[in-house]
Amino acid sequence: MKSRLLGGIAALLLAVIGTVLLVVYVQGADNRAAQGLEPINVLVVKEAVPAGTKAEDLNNFVQIEAVPQAAVPEGALERLNEQNGKITSVDLEPGEQLLASRLVDPRELVPGTVPVPEGLEEVTFLLAPERILGGRLEAGDTVTVYTSFKSEEDMPADAPVPAEVKGWKQSTGLLFHDVLVTAVQKAAPETKQTAGNDGSGSTDSGIEMPNGSAFVTVARTDADAAKMVFGAEFGTIWLAKQSGTSTKSDPPVTTFGGLY
Fold first, then answer.
1. C-alpha atoms less than 13 angstroms from C-alpha of 245 in its C-beta half-sphere
2. Rounded alpha-carbon distances, angstroms, from residue 173 to 131, 148, 158, 196
3. Does 25 fall in a domain?
């Protein structure tokens, strides 16, 4: 009788201890789960970002969101303060968290270049310094493209051009906004010309390259690239560097008659 009583008490104690341990374990699991769900602030992409975008311009494309800690990968950024001078190494899609690994120093890529956004192609133009901000353009900059034309004859009456251009031999117009510069190859300060095919550097076979000139490569669709090539071949091209607050209007073609 006494042994049965002791056995019953022991079983009861084991049951109580087991229950307590189970409760403690469950509470610990809840705490662990709560820690994983605790939200932290991270930067999330709200609009598609092309490769080569400067970190200084990313504020227009990202926003701060509270995300459960368990869903935040290593390297997720909460701010951009320490990313100045870097660029995006790949295209960024809406909804993804901004990772530090997505931002790189341009010098870590092919020297002086940035990635070409998907679907675009590169085309290069040799431009004098006054057409590229005195040579201050760099890979990763976004520019507006202007073209100017000058002809010896008046525009034909049936030419498919804006009415204000007809009758004038000179005109300047805005061709494109938001053109990505993917590479800039600047001439050395003492360079006067590039060498010809024979390596002699003679002006007969070489390309004149004034001090400060540069080969500027941009990324654009094939149709847009054709228009820029036409502008460079039969007129002149001017590039204006855009900022994050640049106004993007659609001005009419400028002629002498409309200048004033």
1. 0
2. 14, 7, 20, 34
3. no
